[in-house]
Design goal:
heterodimer, A: alpha/beta, Rossmann fold, 2 domains, six-stranded mixed beta sheet, 10 helices, 10 strands, about 40% helix, B: about 325 residues, mainly alpha
């Protein structure tokens, strides 16, 4: 079943074309990776899907509904959640309170919200940070808090923007394992923007490559890693030619 | 132990008019201080929790005074009903101003200026609207003691009304702080986009905070008008909003106990200075009050609220 459809999306910032008629279909339970060099339009695409930006052309369909004119909070209550690329913590709240803010969305009362929050903390594995203030935490910890508060809203689709940035290779492996586990447990559909190849290759079933607002490739991780257009986009023409010679 | 502390504190508040020897002047001053403290506590919703630097308290205060007074004078409507209708009128104005403000993301200093502007606009409107207010004071009919009409010569009557309002405001603020509303508002204050992504209708919740604050502030205006026995457009006073925000900031932005305690302490000092110095060198009391504020901000930029709160904790634990 198709849960998310991005149909012919174009977004311009002045003369800059951030996204040029992008199409994307995501099926239920899929994990789709979106990669591309800096400025390729990955985060812009996320901003459009979650309603923070309005596209100049095209439509976004979530669970068969056109959400173009919807505000982010309504899209969230439809079952979409998102971890931001640059973490957006609530500095004056504790980790516990932060996650409870998320869990109130689908809870009828406080005790239900508290239960859901506890569960989210356990799933992400940060129960020990529970009583710490967000402003006391470091970036990798804050990313986990964002993950916890996002899944506390009990989403069906989760958008993750560069959660592995700054992690060591062992930590990346752990994160991949953790996300797979969470996905399994909650039956999530994942959309992942990432620069760390080890992460995106290990997690995704399908990868989309954006370059200057265009979709230049789409396919399985193996086919993408061998695609000459992708190598060219990332490493430049010269490198692509060198690879052909060797 | 805690029960006895609460009981003795409550008893003190209840018996305060007697402690002041039923002296109308002192009770009047005490009531004024409590009225302004109510506004500080109401500001907790829009300023402390929702993080909007609202300076428009004078607009809602004045509106409450005019509506309550007007109905008492011309329609012989009880002040109690006037308080509610004044509050509703203030909520209406707050909605008309707040909806577009939040719709177009008005924030920080721009929001502050817009809210202050509202005070001036309303003042001018009521100065020109001579059917309702105009440049002359409108006097509320005198009653020796008429609790149903909400008018009395003795000031202790207003003291207890204000005390009741203060308790209700405290209760509402405390409930909000502990519950979903408070968490939602603080998350909006801290990081609006993240709050939105967690499914919070940020505009709606900011409006809820603004409407709560405007209602309570209007009620203080109605009580004030009945207590002094008249209303006039000068009650749309920009200073009230500035005083409220200043006290809340000095008392510790977003803290629960700091601002109201600071309000009682600072306003008592201000009144004391005004009574004792205001006559000798006009304006000196304001200079000293300003100096106290500057000192507090210089040495305790986070506000004196956190210190007051830890002091309360210490007393409690002992």
């Amino acid at each position: 079943m198709k849960v998310l459809e991005v149909r012919d999306i174009t977004k311009k910032f002045g003369a800059l074309v951030a996204l040029n008629s992008i199409n994307l279909n995501v099926d239920e339970g899929e994990t789709v990776g979106i990669i591309g060099p800096n400025g390729a339009g990955k985060t812009t695409l996320f901003n459009i899907i979650t309603g923070f930006l309005k596209p100049d052309k095209g439509t976004v369909w979530i669970f068969g509904r056109n959400v173009n004119s919807w505000r982010p909070h309504k899209i969230a209550s439809l079952g979409v959640s998102r971890c931001f690329q640059i973490v957006k913590p609530f500095p004056s709240l504790t980790v516990w309170e932060t996650v409870v803010v998320g869990s109130y969305l689908k809870s009828r009362d406080a005790s239900e919200a508290h239960e859901a929050a506890l569960e989210a903390l356990k799933l992400v594995g940060i129960t020990d940070l529970k009583d710490r203030l967000s402003r006391e935490l470091n970036i990798p910890q804050l990313k986990l808090v964002e993950l916890a508060r996002s899944i506390a809203t009990r989403p069906k689709i989760l958008l993750i923007d560069e959660i592995a940035a700054g992690l060591t290779p062992t930590e990346v492996d752990k994160m991949v394992k953790k996300l797979k586990e969470i996905k399994e447990r909650l039956g999530l559909t994942l959309l992942v923007v990432e620069h760390v190849m080890k992460f995106v290759m290990g997690l995704s079933e399908r990868i989309i490559v954006l370059h200057y607002g265009e979709k230049i490739a789409e396919g399985s991780p193996e086919s993408i890693s061998k695609d000459p257009r992708v190598i060219e986009a990332y490493l430049g023409t010269k490198w692509a030619e060198m690879r052909e010679w060797s | 132990m805690r029960f006895w502390q609460l009981a003795s504190f409550g008893g003190f508040l209840l018996l305060l008019p007697l402690i002041l020897g039923l002296n109308d002047y002192y009770i009047f001053l005490t009531t004024l201080i409590l009225l302004y403290t109510v506004i500080v506590m109401a500001w907790y919703f829009i300023g402390g929790l929702a993080g909007q630097l609202d300076l428009g308290a004078g607009a809602y205060h004045g509106l409450g005074a005019v509506v309550t007074g007007y109905l008492m004078i011309y329609y012989n409507v009880s002040g109690w009903i006037g308080l509610v209708l004044g509050g509703l009128a203030a909520m209406g104005v707050a909605f008309i101003v707040g909806f577009p403000s939040f719709r177009f993301g008005l924030k920080e200093v721009w929001y502050a200026l817009a809210s202050l502007g509202l005070v001036l606009i309303l003042q001018k409107i009521f100065l020109l609207w001579t059917d309702v207010a105009g440049p002359l004071e409108r006097y509320i009919p005198f009653r020796e003691f008429d609790p149903l009409y909400m008018r009395a010569r003795a000031k202790w009557f207003y003291y207890y009304i204000t005390l009741g309002l203060l308790l209700i405001t405290f209760y509402l603020a405390h409930r909000a702080k502990r519950g979903k509303l408070g968490l939602y508002l603080v998350s909006i204050r801290d990081e609006e986009e993240a709050a939105e992504m967690l499914g919070i209708d940020t505009r709606r919740y900011k409006l809820v905070a603004l409407l709560t604050y405007s209602f309570i502030t209007a009620v203080t205006g109605g009580i004030y008008a009945s207590m002094v026995g008249f209303y006039h457009p000068i009650l749309f006073d920009g200073w009230i909003g500035i005083q409220t925000a200043t006290i809340a900031i000095v008392g510790g932005l977003g803290h629960f106990w700091g601002p109201p305690l600071t309000s009682v302490i600072l306003l008592s000092i201000a009144e004391y200075l005004r009574i004792n110095l205001g006559g000798t060198i006009p304006g000196l009391h304001q200079v000293i009050f300003g100096a106290i504020l500057i000192t507090a901000i210089l040495f305790k930029p986070a506000g004196i609220g956190p210190y007051l709160e830890s002091l309360i904790e210490k007393v409690r634990k002992r």
